[in-house]
Amino acid sequence: MHTKLTLRIDAPLIKAAKKYSAIHGRSLSTLVADYLLLITTQSGTIQEKEVTPPLTQALQGILRGKKVSDADYRNYLDDKYK
Predict the structure, then answer these.
(1) FRET label pair with 71: which of 4, 19, 22, 60, CA 20 to 30 Å apart?
(2) Which sequence spans correspond to the domains of the chain?
(3) Rounded to an integer, what distance in angstroms lies between the CA atom of residue 41 and that of residue 43?
(4) pLDDT, tens digit, for every residue of 14-64?
(5) How far is the C-alpha of 46 from the C-alpha of 49, rounded, in Å?
(6) Which pLDDT score is estimated for 44?
């Protein structure tokens, strides 16, 4: 369930955050929610252990079953930095 939240934040910070969110293709709401998820547990207390960021969690396993060799990666880097 999503609930609307009103925040008071300085205008320059909002502008910078919107630019960041546009560059990274994520909404500002998603960035704030991800940050809050990182610093709190479901009970709302500060976490005692480190949690994998949501973006990293979303990427886990995407290469499962794929064949990527060292040579493929070296070729990619050679092409990228020519």
Answers:
(1) 60
(2) 1-60
(3) 5
(4) 999 999 999 988 999 988 988 888 777 555 555 555 667 788 888 888 888
(5) 9
(6) 55
